[in-house]
Design goal:
Structural class of chain B: alpha/beta
Distance between the termini of chain B: 47 Å
Order of helices and strands of chain A: HHHHHHHHHHHHHH
Strand content of chain A: under 5%
CATH superfamily of one domain in chain B: P-loop containing nucleotide triphosphate hydrolases
CATH topology of one domain in chain B: Rossmann fold
Low-confidence stretches of chain B: none
CATH architecture of one domain in chain B: 3-Layer(aba) Sandwich
Low-confidence stretches of chain A: none
CATH architecture of one domain in chain A: Orthogonal Bundle
Distance between the termini of chain A: 20 Å
Strand content of chain B: 25-35%
Oligomer: heterodimer
Number of helices of chain B: 9
Order of helices and strands of chain B: EEEHEEHEHHHEHEHEEHHEE
CATH topology of one domain in chain A: ABC transporter involved in vitamin B12 uptake, BtuC
Shape of chain B: globular
Amino acid sequence: MPTRRRAALILAALLVLALASFWTALAAGSIPIAARDVLAALSGQDTPSADIVRELRLPRALAGFACGGLLALAGALMQVLLRNPLADPYILGVSGGAGVCALLAILLGLPALGVNGLAFVGAFGAMLLVFGLAHGDGSWTQMRLLLTGVIVAAGCGALISLMLAIAPEDRLRGMLFWLTGDLGQSGSSWPPLLALAITLALAMPAARELNLLARGAMQAQSLGVAVNRLRHAIFLLASLATAASVTTAGSIGFIGLIVPHLVRLAAGNDQRLLLPASALAGGALLLLADTLARTVIAPQQLPVGVLTALIGVPVFLLLLSRQPR
Amino acid sequence: MMPPLLSTSDLSVEIGGRAIVCGLDLQVAAGERLAILGRNGAGKSTLLATLAGLRPPAGGQIALGGDALPTLSPRQAALRRAWLGQTQADPFGSTVLETALTGRHPHLGRWSWESPRDAALARSALQAVGLGAMENRAVHTLSGGERQRLGIAALLAQAAPLYLLDEPLAHLDLNHQMAVLELFAGAARDCGAGVIMVLHDPALAHRYCDRALLIDGDGKHTLGGVDDVLTAPILSALYGYPLRELLSGGHRCFIPE
């Protein structure tokens, strides 16, 4: 029996987890900062380490949390939209389009702002392309949307391989970091945070309808869901959330696929709980992964996408093995 | 005078360019039960989905409770008719009670959660189909017949005055077939529900329905009282197989020659 009380308790627990991961992200690094100094820096006092916390770690932590939340939320929405547990935010080619344009920008030697801007153009272009092709004749089937998206993503993948093959040596590292995801280059943290808040605010009113959509379009329609309108809205929302994250931090893998499943295994499949819980858990997981990525072999940094997978896989397998069959 | 629960005028239904019915005029009033019969692929499910407003008709009008379907929002339609499809799928898994509660969706506001009253309605619907003890079971652990009854429980929880049932007896053993037919007969008799169901057994259709709509599959249909329409000659022509009619204990039976 789904109740508000149970949902509130689970969300409160995840909020604590998210705050703890923020704390770790601010305190840990190549220069460890004591708890007292972190608090002092956050409250605006000028201590020697205040600049590191306020100028470097806090914006990066906020951007990381927002991107993780966006990816997990977009993944949860895509899984319902396509009624496919294997769907992730990148399945319909949004990150492929962003990748092609971002690598092109790196290849041309554009500054970070240009890379981000072109990445968003690419993500948006891929979204419109998939929507137009899948929806061209007015019909809309999951299979057609899925196939169109996968093929567009494959085409983008080929272009990305081509650019990697012809790229000069000195650009290659930056391109590879973009492809696995990198929070180091993520300018301002406000756009992704705002995108996360807007996506969640727009998706939550439709959460119970999404529960029905997961059971099938006819079933949902017979129970009073305006199915086509809902599908279009969810497609646009999930794509824009993905675009916002990819533009900020590159295509960080795994979060969007695994976090919704983690939450589903632990707390069930009611979207009213799943959507906000995925946002919190995705944000916390990416924040922890990014903190590890910049501390494990500091001062050198690892690609964060590698660590999201290294943390996510064992946690997921553990939960799966504890699940009653 | 209450408007009929469902009425169609000059209704045409097509699928893939093939006509299923043409010029169908049908009224279903409170307490009435109608069976739809026809061969495999004749278009029974397509017709039922069209009557439910889930796909557009090729021509003509359909009204629910006196209001034309295009003027009703999906939610308003869901409060006037409940539709049982042939498959109930849930790729992500849920419990029996959660599935029964889906029937309450059209009654709830956008932000509301299921109340104890909704839960009580869902539980009594589960009781009615004999799943009362299974509310915490995961749906994927149920048998095909139990899943079918769970679909019917969700339908009962929806509490709409008109039931559109696509093969409600699929996967059910004999005693549950009779229990389900008795359940909807009781709903029609005691609560004034209208019932339209796709059936494959003309004997059960004769016993549990007032009227029958026979679909030929090439655009022609026959609509009439069960005593007039469900006869050996007509059914033999419908199914393309000779049937013999027997009378036993006041019930008509049809056996293949």
